[in-house]
Amino acid sequence: MDDDQVAIATAIGIAVRHARKEAGLTMREVALKSGLSQPFLSQTENGRAVPSVMNLHRLAQSLGTTAHALLAQGERTPSSLVRAHEGRKFELAHDSSIRFCSTGSHTMEPNEITAGPHSEAGEHTEHAGEEFIHVLEGTVDVEVGLDERHRLNVGDTLLYAATIPHRWFNRTDRIARFLIVSSPPSF
């Protein structure tokens, strides 16, 4: 790991350990709730492993928090400025990434997704609150529940209850970029 990766791994480990202790859970209990192995959780807490974004999301849910809160590591601030090409960025899946568009802790969570050609979010997710998608570039397909499918093009928006299982796809040969805003924060 380079210096930035070590710093991220250490910060995530500290945040996970703190959240686990605050929740009064053992590592074994968190492993059972999250579906992640106890050795992996130990490596994460000790800064020797960095969970994928989806595993961090599962881990945060099992701890009663959000991945964004674990990564933010900041106190609530009255404003947040993230310039273009700044913000923490993490790989979601092969050829797809998420960029956090705010810092600190807030009541909503804006994130920019860059989805490579023929990429997808993976499995359906569900969480408290609502989610808003706005397409900046390309085309994005979104599934909400079992029966609802939407094709979104540049400028299109979609708002839905995040308690319904949902996921996105880029089924085209071009990159897609879109904003996902969750309230309350879910990552």
From TrEMBL:
Tagged with keyword DNA-binding: yes
Keywords, ordered alphabetically: DNA-binding
InterPro entries linked to this entry: Cro/C1-type_HTH, Cupin_2, Lambda_DNA-bd_dom_sf, RmlC-like_jellyroll, RmlC_Cupin_sf, TransReg_Diox_bact_type
Domain of life, per lineage: Bacteria
Domain HTH cro/C1-type: 16-70
Protein name as it appears in the record: Cupin domain-containing protein
